[in-house]
Automatic annotation (TrEMBL):
Presence of keyword Transmembrane: yes
Protein name: Crumbs cell polarity complex component 1
Any Gene Ontology biological process: epithelial cell differentiation
CDD domains: EGF_CA (cd00054), LamG (cd00110)
Annotated disulfide bonds: C80-C89, C296-C305, C549-C558, C565-C575, C586-C595, C624-C633
InterPro entries to which the protein is assigned, alphabetical: ConA-like_dom_sf (IPR013320), EGF (IPR000742), EGF-like_Ca-bd_dom (IPR001881), EGF-type_Asp/Asn_hydroxyl_site (IPR000152), Laminin_G (IPR001791)
Pfam short name (any one): EGF
Locations listed in the record: Apical cell membrane
Keyword Cell membrane: yes
EGF-like domain span: 54-90, 270-306, 523-559, 561-596, 598-634
Laminin G domain residues: 96-268, 333-521
Length: 675
């Protein structure tokens, strides 16, 4: 039967293997002599009885924990399923607990044979964690096999390259059997004997002296690249057939020696994770094996209900936008600045720890010169302003560094909203260049030539002025600002009394100026009273007015008339509109732009041949010299002839001949009439 080998020799048959015969023999002759059993029972008979009674040794199910029993007639053998061991499979490899009390635990083993290119790693594991390092096989030059948890799945990686991820999730707190099989060409991953994937690989070469890290690496940083130290339990870990025993149980099986073990404890009992009240804000804790869940009250979230959904509690005034912060919440809104009385001042609350290396704001103004934010301490200062319509940063910070001066390429005083983001290019550095991004146009960002330090001097004890250089210094902002943030911490417009819930964030800037800002963004009263004249109607374009003029009027305030003749400007003449002006056509006798001047009618008179001009009301007359006549004396006088006697005479003009006979006139051609 199995286990018994026969070797044929020339002379006969020889029984070679050691296990003794188990069974019954009868009727045995040696050299034709019956060997009587009784004789056997003498001195040299061992472990033999008379008769042939037989009992199935497996009948009593001696193998525990689903061990498979083989009947050996006089005894039995158990084939134990993992993780059980021992004659009756009653013993179990002790489970190793990693990360107990959240400690950093790991174990190191040495490989003491040349496993070569065929490696099978297998283990039971139980965890609630979605990440953590399970096992690393390494030689002096490389970590050639890594096994870790990633998002609740097992991942295995060979040569820092070929990678497989399990399909199933194993972070459910149940026990899972995971195995990785590597041969010359393939890497295969199994979870509970179910193949999760296979990938072609380059050959590995595991050699004597290589080490196995379990649960983490010696260095925390190196471990965190694979999700940190493992938290959970590992049992019956084997590489090929070699056990990696954390707590020595079975000395009969071959094991790789344990070199070092840190914070690994025996057993895998669940801890009452709720005993330490992990759920915050009134969350209900439910204990699970090695874990807990919190049932969070309304408006809280997170594994430990640590995230309060502050904004769902509507802590901000109606006009403000609530934003949840890492800690607490803040109300973001805009405020209107009218003049130098609107200037606000702020101070850090003394608990600001973070580095301050940026300023963000949004701005709306039409003024070309205003200060937005200003603060100074000794030689250090920071000013964000608008100068000549461009946005400016001036900064003096950091020992011995030069002044940073940075301006936008495009104007901002056009009455539209503009967002401003100023930040140190390398905020962790002592000094660095500063960059300005306007309206999120990253491509148009401007960077300073010189390097400046950070704004940490604003953390405490320094007044930060918003909207001017202070109530007395002018440069006041006329316009609106959104909530300004320094290093990501808001300079809030609402006081603790104006919000419905306390601000719980450690790091805060507090308003120190007594007057609350005008909330919301409204323009100045540019139309009250109306600047438009002559019945024009005023249009409020936010800090800018526009007049719609009545017909006949024009200019910014409708102060100019377009019907230039409406006022009858031509005193002695007719008016005509010429564009925005008029022209007078003067009546005779008048001159001047408005025909206001009387003309001398005798000026340029036409009286010829020395005729004298006589002034009339609106015309002149010519008094002609002797021998000339006509209205303008330009006709020579012709002689007269007289006939008849003193009693009866007759006169003919214009060289007409007077005839004595009938006292009549003979006229020159061209003349007619009796005389
Ligand atoms: C007799 O059997 C027992 C139990 O199987 C065993 O321990 C013992 O070695 C045997 N004796 C000899 C001489 O083989
Ligand atoms: C055990 O865990 C603690 C807590 O995480 C850690 O500070 C300590 O270094 C660990 N011990 C060893 C030997 O690594
Ligand atoms: C370390 O292991 C890799 C991968 O098996 C192998 O290529 C390399 O030669 C080994 N280095 C040493 C020093 O054994
Ligand atoms: C601040 O405003 C008031 C009122 O407009 C004005 O009288 C005063 O001169 C201003 N101060 C400065 C420094 O401009
Ligand atoms: C100002 O008013 C005039 C007249 O109503 C109009 O034509 C013009 O478009 C207005 N300007 C703006 C900027 O609204
Ligand atoms: C003025 O207008 C009237 C009416 O159209 C016209 O009769 C007169 O001649 C004009 N006078 C002048 C100086 O053009
Ligand atoms: C007038 O009389 C003179 C002299 O007799 C003569 O020469 C002239 O032609 C006459 N004129 C006319 C208009 O008859
Ligand atoms: C001033 C002048 O020239 N008078 C003359 C007018 O005409 C008569 C007749 O022809 C002359 O005798 C005058 O001398």
């Amino acid at each position: 039967s199995t286990g018994h080998e026969l070797v044929m020799l020339n002379e006969g048959v020889v029984l070679v293997t050691v296990p003794a015969f188990i069974g019954c023999l009868q009727d045995i002759f040696v050299n034709s002599q019956l060997v009587v059993p009784e004789e056997w029972l003498s001195d040299s008979a061992v472990n033999m009885t008379i008769g042939c009674s037989h009992r199935d040794r497996c009948q009593d199910s001696p193998c525990q924990n689903r061990g498979q029993c083989t009947n050996l007639w006089q005894s039995y053998q158990c084939r134990c399923p993992r993780p059980y061991e021992g004659q009756d499979c009653a013993e179990e490899y002790e489970t190793a607990r990693f990360g107990n009390e959240d400690s950093q635990s790991y174990a190191v083993f040495t490989i003491t044979d040349d496993a070569g290119s065929d490696i099978t790693v297998s283990l039971f594991l139980r965890t609630h964690r979605h990440a953590g390092l399970l096992l690393v096989l390494a030689n002096s030059t490389s970590q050639y096999l890594r096994l870790w948890l990633d998002k609740g799945r097992v991942r295995v990686q060979l040569h820092n390259f070929e990678t497989l991820t399990s399909e199933s999730f194993i972070n459910d707190g149940d026990i899972h059997f995971v195995s990785v099989v590597v041969d010359r060409e393939h890497l295969v991953l199994y979870v509970a004997n179910q193949k999760q994937g296979s990938v072609e690989v380059r050959t590995v070469d595991s050699q004597m002296g290589d080490v196995v890290y379990v649960g983490g690496l010696a260095e925390q940083k190196a471990s965190s690249a694979f999700g940190g130290y493992f938290k959970g339990c590992i049992q019956d870990l084997r590489i090929n057939s070699e056990r990696l025993q954390f707590f020595r149980l079975d000395t009969t099986v071959t094991s790789y020696p344990l070199v070092l073990m840190a914070n690994v404890t025996a057993g895998c009992a669940g801890v009452d994770s709720c005993s330490r009240n992990p759920c915050q804000n009134g969350g209900m804790c439910y204990s699970m094996w090695d874990d807990f869940t919190c049932t969070c009250p309304h408006n809280t979230a997170g594994r430990r209900c640590e995230k309060v959904k502050w904004c769902e509690l509507a802590p901000c005034p109606a006009k403000a936008e609530c934003r949840t912060l890492n800690q607490g919440y803040e109300c973001f809104s805009s405020a209107t600045f009218l003049d130098n009385s609107s200037v606000l001042s702020y101070r850090g609350n003394g608990r600001i720890q973070r580095g301050l290396a940026s300023i963000t704001a949004s701005l709306r103004t039409r003024k070309r010169h205003v200060a937005i934010l200003h603060a100074e301490r000794g030689p250090e200062f920071v000013t964000v302003s608008v100068q000549h319509g461009l946005l400016f940063l001036e900064l003096q910070s950091g020992e011995g560094s030069s002044t940073v001066s940075l301006s936008s390429r495009v104007g901002v005083s056009d009455g539209d909203w503009h967002s401003v983001h100023l930040f140190m290019v390398t905020p962790w550095a002592e000094v660095s260049r500063w960059t300005l991004v306007l309206d999120e146009e990253v491509d148009e960002a401007a960077s300073s030539n010189s390097e400046g330090g950070n704004l940490d001097f604003l953390r405490e004890g320094v007044d930060i002025q918003l909207g001017g250089l202070g109530p007395k210094a002018g440069w006041s902002l006329e316009g609106c600002l959104g909530t300004v943030e320094v290093g990501g911490i808001a300079l809030p417009y609402y006081s603790p009394l104006e919000v419905n819930l306390p601000r719980i964030q450690e790091e805060q800037f507090l308003r120190t100026s007594p007057n609350p800002p005008r909330s919301g963004c409204s323009g100045g009263p540019v139309c009250q009273p109306s600047p438009c004249m002559n019945g024009g109607s005023c249009q409020d374009l936010w800090n800018l007015f526009n007049c719609s003029c009545e017909e006949g009027w024009t200019a910014r305030r409708c102060e100019r008339n377009t019907d230039t003749c409406a006022s009858n400007p031509c005193i002695h003449g007719n008016c005509s509109i010429q564009g925005l002006a008029y022209e007078c056509a003067c009546e005779f006798g008048y001159t001047g732009v408005d025909c206001e001047e009387e003309v001398d009618v005798c000026e340029n008179h036409l009286c010829a041949h020395g005729g004298t001009c006589l002034h009339g009301v609106d015309k002149y007359a010519c008094l002609c010299a002797e021998n000339y006549t006509g209205p303008y004396c330009n006709r020579p006088k012709l002689p007269v002839s007289v006939c008849g006697d003193a009693a009866r005479n007759y006169i003919c003009f214009n060289a007409g001949n007077c005839t004595e006979r009938d006292l009549s006139c003979d006229c020159l051609p061209g003349f007619t009439g009796h005389r």
